Amino acid sequence: MASDGESTVVEIHVSPGDEHDAAHGRRSMAALGASVGAHPLMGRAYERDSTRLPAESFGLTPVVPPKRNRTAPWDYDREAHKGRNMVERVFNRMKHHRKAATRHDRLDETFLANLQLIPIAIYLKNTAKNPISVNTP
């Protein structure tokens, strides 16, 4: 899943539970490309050259800390990487919905449809707390 950090899900894929997320993350980065012009915030699990270098080739600037055992570590924006917390919050909010947390759906299409509906429900819940009047100038 790719998120803008608030509650908006930008890209979402369903993958088998026994596969590493890096390959699917690369697929998301290819789909997003430079159109977003963003700096993907990634954890150390995605710091391998096989994930970081393709992100750069797609026009993205990945913000990922190098592992401690890297022989040639690179500099990264530590302040920007703190924003990764906001993306983790989006995951947490989605897991509050039982359909996403338990995954009892038999078909991937059904599970994906539920994952696509949950951000809409979150958005509607947030806007209901702060209603916007149509008559305001």
Question: How many helices does DSSP assign?
Answer: 6
CATH architecture annotation name:
2-Layer Sandwich
Low-confidence stretches: none
Rounded to the nearest angstrom, the radius of gyration is: 17 Å
For the biggest β-sheet, the strand order reads 1-2
Give a count of the beta strands, DSSP E runs of length 2 or more. 2
Query: The biggest beta sheet, please?
Result: 2 strands, antiparallel
CATH topology: Nucleotidyltransferase, domain 5
Structural class: mainly alpha
Helix coverage percent of residues? 40-55%
Spatial separation of the terminal alpha carbons: 37 Å
The proportion of residues in beta strands is under 5%
Mean of residue pLDDT values: 78
H/E element string?
A: EEHHHHHH
CATH class: Alpha Beta
Task: Tell me the number of structural domains.
Answer: 1
* Broad shape: globular
Region (Disordered): 56-77
Protein name: Transposase
Structure description:
This protein is mainly alpha-helical. It has a single domain (2-129), classed as Nucleotidyltransferase, domain 5. It contains six helices and two strands, in the order E-E-H-H-H-H-H-H. Strands 1-2 form a two-stranded antiparallel sheet. Strand 1 (2-3) and strand 2 (9-11) form a beta hairpin.
What features would you highlight for this structure?
single chain; 137 residues; mainly alpha; Nucleotidyltransferase, domain 5; two-stranded antiparallel ribbon; 6 helices; 47% helix; Transposase
